[in-house]
Amino acid sequence: MKKEINPKDYISLMTPMSDILSQVMFENNTELVEYIIRTIIGIDDLKVIKVEVQKTLPGSSVYRSVRFDIFAVDSKGVKYDIEIQNDIADATPDRARFYLAMIDSHTVKKGIKKIKLNPVYIIFITKEDYFKGKEALYHFIFSEKDTHLPFNTEAHIIYLNLSNKTNKKLLDLQHDFMCKDPTDMRVDVIRRSANYYKNTEEGVNKMCEISKQIFNDGKAYGFNIGEAKGIKIGEANGIKIGEAKGIKVGEIKTYANMINNNLITLDQALSSLNMSTEEFVNLANQYKIVINCL
């Protein structure tokens, strides 16, 4: 028999790096986003005026769209995309370049002859150092190859990792993004937001609602895969079989996300799914679901 996991049981284990907690903490929270951007890029007087979480920019009938974790605009029209990446495999330079291009492509409207682009910052916050170096922060700009003459596009790509403690100005931010207990957080604006969603009734209820929605989305995703596969192979009851398989795949995707965010252990996931390690691994591999502990 499956043992259901109550969302309240793992909310206490979340950090600002967790997908669910970061989504609610940053939503419309200009004060918090402003602090993070100021700390990372070192401009103390910038004023964030707009924040959108999970903002989507449309693609076309041929090319894909993009969804940003945290999209912000300051009072001077500078645009910022902050990506919370627990898996450094997703924080590739290609991805940064694509996000930058998508922001620029949605800036210039039809009929404009003289192109003028505002500065753009793509910021990846990762647990590990993507470049496997010794720095906490890497700030990339366009420059001439040999002389390093700046090519003033005002396009910036920044990587901040939480592993290398080499920049004193970033230590408190790095600490709090990996901290589970709001009472141990050092930055007031981070502590207040985290405490609201982890320790107040209203905040916890909202977290639970989002957790359940993500779980249901995982089931729907799995259903679609399973149903399509069932029909494709021509099974007489393909939809029924596909649905059963699909729901299980959706559950694995959901529990894999919780494992990767250090919300539950592998053993807890196996107990909840009533599944052996071998079955879990086989299905994860079959549907290309990444599980960091395997």
Question: Any overview of this molecule?
Answer:
This protein has 294 residues and is α/β, with parallel strands linked by helices. It has 10 helices and 6 strands. The chain has a 6-stranded mixed β-sheet with strand order 1-2-3-4-6-5, with helices on both faces. Helix 6 (188-199) crosses helix 7 and helix 7 (201-232) packs across helix 8 (238-260).
Topology:
Layout: H1 7-11, H2 19-26, H3 30-41, E1 48-57, E2 66-74, E3 79-85, H4 93-105, E4 120-126, E5 137-140, E6 155-161, H5 171-177, H6 188-199, H7 201-232, H8 238-260, H9 266-273, H10 277-286
Parallel strand pairs: 3-4, 4-6
Antiparallel strand pairs: 1-2, 2-3, 5-6
Percent of residues in beta strands?
A: 5-15%
Taken from the alpha-carbon principal axes, the silhouette is: globular
Number of helices: 10
Count the strands? 6
Please describe the biggest sheet, giving its number of strands, its sense, and whether it closes into a barrel: 6 strands, mixed
User: What structural category do the secondary elements indicate?
Assistant: alpha/beta
Give the termini distance in whole angstroms: 24 Å
Low-confidence stretches: 233-241
- Calculate the mean pLDDT score and round it: 85
Helix content: 40-55%
Write down the secondary-structure element order: HHHEEEHEEEHHHHHH
What is the radius of gyration?
21 Å
Q: Which strand order spans the largest sheet, edge to edge or round the barrel?
A: 1-2-3-4-6-5
Key terms for this structure?
294 residues, alpha/beta, six-stranded mixed β-sheet, 10 helices
Brief description of this entry?
The chain is an alpha/beta fold. Helix content is 44%, strand content 15%.
